[in-house]
Amino acid sequence: MAIQATSAGLVRGVLEMILSTVGDPSGAMVPSSALRSKGPDSSFALSACCGRPPSGPGEGGAGSGRWSNPGLGGRLCLVLLFVLSVPTQPLASDYFGLGSRNAALSGAVSADCEDGAAAWYNPASLAVAPGAVGLFYTSMFSGVSTSLESPGSLGHIPTFQLRDADGMLDQGASQGAVDEAAQAAGDLERFSGIGMSFVLPLGRLFPALPVPAALGGTVLVPGDGGSLAHFSGNRADRPFFPTFNTPFNQARIHFGLGSTLWPDHLWLGGGTSVHSRVNGTFSTQNPVASYDPAHPDKNPPAPSQADTSQRLDLAASWTAGILARPLPWAGIALVYHSAEETSMDMNIEAVMELDLGEPVRVEVPYQMTGAFAWRPHRLLAGLTATPPDTGLTITAEVEFALWKQFEEHIQVLELKVPDEALSQESTLYIDDLGGWFRVDSTGRPAARLRNTWTPRAGLEYRWTNGLAVRGGYSFRPSPLEPDQQYRNMLLDNSWHSVTLGTGVRLLRKGETRPELSLSAHAQGIYLVPRDNAVGATGGGSSPYARGLIRSEGFLAGGGLELTASF
Asked: pTM score, two decimals?
């Protein structure tokens, strides 16, 4: 679901949360357990209680049988909560690199980055990089596939249950809905991006500068450059990949400053990454009227109305790095990346206009919070070696990522019921609706993730004529624990990445002209096949009858980079 569809989804969700006209002439109501939201991401579910307040524990519980007002009970049974989860997605530079040379070395360049992308990989490297301007383009397409290995308990999720014309559960159609959802999870979007990088040695602007330093950065625009942002989301009741999906998702600016601490031996740098986030408000009026087939013109609902207000804010994260060269041909690096999140937060007020023979108005305020992209705190240690007279450059690094904090970033829409409006039994009395409602707090999904170690390595050979060949490898272990032990729709895979690349010098540097070079790379990512346990769990920590969705496949692509060094 793209961000442009969010407002429509809210209107649809509020409509779904308003009314269910069930009941029989006797006034008996459907048990609330059959109507309660069961998804892992339900924050609250409102289930109808008896028309009078419960007199004690165990009395008048949710679904206790009858309303004190049978006429009203025959028309109005339940107000449902609408919830929606939005998955988080990583950033392009995490897995696919900024620039062809960096990508061809599998991103293992924290100790050996030669262009403006050092503002991202290690700002300290800017101080030793030559002055340069570069343009790059990267594109990746998906060969990921997902399939249902076992339906398990997935058929018990209400949104998968389809009924026939007689209102009976259609087992075949429901099974088809589960199969379709499992297969759709692997339909990942093609992603691409264009960018520019630069390095500006400040000594050329300020010759009297006492400490050698350089400013550098990159500008990344998703797709073909025609849009600044594209956020994709998934439904909470459908399988999705929470740790990768559409990596190139928004325009970003990385910039940094590198400075010399000890000439020829030690450099320090810092940088920041600037991106956007969305904030605003949303209000809607959704009229509902009782309906009598014998009198179709009676109590028609009025048109719905909606008011919106949004603003685009800036958010930033930061990077700090150290580069040391104990030997002229060897270097080591330490880099820290802070966590960052791209969010969309909205304050919402749903105004329900009910016509039950007399007008009834109920206001329900709640908030929407969504994390569209998230990157954990990361610490990297890297090294590079260029043995003399060999033409070889060897790079390697290891990354430690704090994925355990991810559980706070699977966002849901929440109905915020004021505490002062609730009784000690967690019940809410709405006088206009003539009854008590029980508020069932089910909490947010708490994904079980683990911190990960990701190794990367690269190798480059350069001839004296300016031709270069490159290769790289990395292994990214899945941060998602294989057994979540709660109802979930989360998928993930470990993967191996192999990259190959080349570079050629088009023009030699002269007194009045820069050196011009062209680089290209190709990348393949193999997803280690995995059977993901999804669905319901039993009491305690013992899961039962869960479904299995198998995820496997590959990602492949490449890119070009044109660099002018001066």
From this structure: 0.73
